[in-house]
Amino acid sequence: MKRTEYIKGKVTVQPIDVWLHVPPTVWKGDRLGHIGINDTFFYVISGECFISIDDKSFMVKAGQLAFLPKGKKRSYTHASDDFVMYEMAFSAQVEGEDLMEYLDLCEGDFAVDIANGAEMREYFESSCRKEMRREPIFDIVWCANIIKIIGEYTKSHRSKNGRDSKLFAPVLEYMSENLDKPIKTEELAEKAFMQTTYFIRRFGAFYGLSPQIYLTKMRINRAMTLLSTTEMPIEKIAKSVGIPDTSYFSRVFKKHCGITPGGYRAAFLNER
Predict the structure, then answer these.
(1) Tell me: the pLDDT tens digits for 230-253?
(2) Which residues form the domain of 244?
(3) What is the pLDDT of residues 204-223, one digit of tens each?
(4) CA gyration radius for the chain?
(5) CATH of residue 224
């Protein structure tokens, strides 16, 4: 049955489905991947999950909201047994155009931190109350919740991907293109035309991480993609992301992801 559409101005929102994944039921995810036919939000309550969207891989931790755009290849699996997550599929348009694309939310980092976790959880929880689905007001509440979730995601996404993004874009591009090489902080400061100490402070204020820790995160994210989409040996992956010592690479990977590179690969490839 087609859900009720809620229209405010020129924006049309259509809820599609919502689920709460909680033990003892095991969320199997989709290791093999598929092209998403609906825009989808994941809101992680506890544990972590790994998501790949096209050529980007990232981890979503408790308290983070992830957006999975329709039309992109997505694969995902959980990283912990105590994994609890809300999943919501929806459609939103403005004058016939996809709202998420209109808001420029279909690129960049797809996982954002949410400041008010209790409020965000309530948006999902009140949309997931199956005993309310026969009540006429339920669809209105659900649609309103989707608008609120989109609003919170938009603010966090723009804060993370917009402010100062032009300033640091050459730095991130240089990191991405040279992940297989040693990169000094002084080199990165030069790309931003800043003195090194000021660059470290400004970069940290914007991203919440030091340049070198952010670089390590990029290396691990690239490794996650290679582990989940190729059969390249782990030692070659380690070299390709600039951590040629395989043992050290494994330690860094586990520290970042909570799982070994081999375990991560098994999670995605054992059903191929």
Answers:
(1) 889 999 999 999 999 999 999 999
(2) 165-269
(3) 888 778 999 989 988 998 89
(4) 20
(5) 1.10.10.60
